[in-house]
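Fill in residues.
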């Protein structure tokens, strides 16, 4: 039996990542492909949740409403980049038994580790801003709760997290997969009855130079930031270790990497379809009409008032839309909290209860949303601008995660001869990093010159 050599990084680990779920899920030793895939399925769904949170909703719907089908190519490219990055993140965790935060901290000093932790925490808070806004708007649509009250009520989702943690990790995965399936079916039906321009939709998958114009670029980067989530790289590198495998058997490690990749790509394909459906829905309903920007409320009202041609029971669809919006934010509650714990333990070796971790993050995120709600009196356009800007910030933070991930998975010393990235993977990863960094610097410069 061939055995792996111990990797240099392991001796720096400050205990296993997310110790309470690490190596807790059994997998069959000699099961069929489908049985083995079922056993490894789950972490990909938790990662995919981050690719369809309320931030994705507003950027995709808004992108379709403002620019038609132009930016659907951005969703395609972002999703392919996400699949590559999540594959590398899962591989790093499974092979080295360290998450990305632990691996990065092992190669940096204490000061740089703290700086990287703070920047990652800022990205997590930016993601949480989208969840706060999405949850508050969903509560307003469903129960007519004022936005200020709804924003305050989102703090209570810490109670939901406490309940879910009692169910066990495998049951949480099953709940998330079910909710993703429901969201997919709801939007597939809504797009069908919205009568989109099929030819224009497929033409939108081909990138066009107009994307680089100022307004389109801002929205495109918002879509990238909402689609390729930097904190998901930390999450996946950790929860990929939840499967109980024999790390002394190189073939078993390779099998775990293979099925983790299958799981990730299948779930991210579902997230890609949902984001495309959201953009198509925004384009079909609002593009060229000169009214409504594809906001959550305008889309809800379109469904509620039977503005979709051929719609049946539109009020029911409007309720489903709002429920799905609320559910997507609550789904992200789980992953955001887990990621916060991962980066805190990995970068600064600090642990705290998940409920406390969640409460602190949510309180920090609520402040800018409450301020925006009070100053602009809950104006939709102001809330949407805050949402889009939070997603642009995530895009700016992305290279900070991509650079160490590419470095580590391209190192034979860290990954070993068998698991190091193939040359083409390394080249594509660096190309994506360079292009995204350039676009981010460009959008930052545009922002500065517009002041």
């Amino acid at each position: 039996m061939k055995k792996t050599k111990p990797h240099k990084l392991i001796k720096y680990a400050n205990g296993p990542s997310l110790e309470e779920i690490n190596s807790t899920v059994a997998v069959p030793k000699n099961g069929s492909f489908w049985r083995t895939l079922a056993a490894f399925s789950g972490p990909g769904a938790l990662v995919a949740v981050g690719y369809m949170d309320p931030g994705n909703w507003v950027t995709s719907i808004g992108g379709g409403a403002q620019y038609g089908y132009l930016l659907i190519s951005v969703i395609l490219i972002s999703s392919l980049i996400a699949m590559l990055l999540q594959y590398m993140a899962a591989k790093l965790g499974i092979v080295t038994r360290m998450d990305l935060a632990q691996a990065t901290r092992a190669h940096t000093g204490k000061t740089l580790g703290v700086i990287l932790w703070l920047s990652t925490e800022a990205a997590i808070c930016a993601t949480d801003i989208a969840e706060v806004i999405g949850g508050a708007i969903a509560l307003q649509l469903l129960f007519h709760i004022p936005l200020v009250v709804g924003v305050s009520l989102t703090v209570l989702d810490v109670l939901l997290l406490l309940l879910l943690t009692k169910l066990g990790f495998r049951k949480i995965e099953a709940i998330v997969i079910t909710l993703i399936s429901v969201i997919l079916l709801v939007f597939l039906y809504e797009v069908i009855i919205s009568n989109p321009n099929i030819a224009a939709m497929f033409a939108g998958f081909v990138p066009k130079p107009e994307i680089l114009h100022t307004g389109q670029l801002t929205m495109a980067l918002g879509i990238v930031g909402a689609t390729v989530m930097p904190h998901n790289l930390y999450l996946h590198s950790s929860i990929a270790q939840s499967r109980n495998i024999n790390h002394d058997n190189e073939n078993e490690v390779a099998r775990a990497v293979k099925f983790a990749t299958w799981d990730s790509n299948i779930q991210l394909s579902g997230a890609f379809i949902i984001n495309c459906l959201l953009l198509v829905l925004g384009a079909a309903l609002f593009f060229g009409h000169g009214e409504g920007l594809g906001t959550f409320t305008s889309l809800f009202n379109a469904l509620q008032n039977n503005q979709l041609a051929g719609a049946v029971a539109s009020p029911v669809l409007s309720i489903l839309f709002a429920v799905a919006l609320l559910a997507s934010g609550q789904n992200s509650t789980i992953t955001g909290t887990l990621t916060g714990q991962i980066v805190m333990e990995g970068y600064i070796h600090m642990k705290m209860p998940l409920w406390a971790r969640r409460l602190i993050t949510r309180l920090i995120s609520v402040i800018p949303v409450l301020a925006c709600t009070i100053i602009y009196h809950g104006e939709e356009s102001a809330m949407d601008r805050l949402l889009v800007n939070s997603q642009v910030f995530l895009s700016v933070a992305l290279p900070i995660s991509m650079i160490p991930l590419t470095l580590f998975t391209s190192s034979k010393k860290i990954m070993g001869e068998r698991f190091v990235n193939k040359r083409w993977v390394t080249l594509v990863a660096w190309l994506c990093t360079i292009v995204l960094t350039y676009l981010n610097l460009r959008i930052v410069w545009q922002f500065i010159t517009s002041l």
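The first strand starts at residue 25 and ends at 26.
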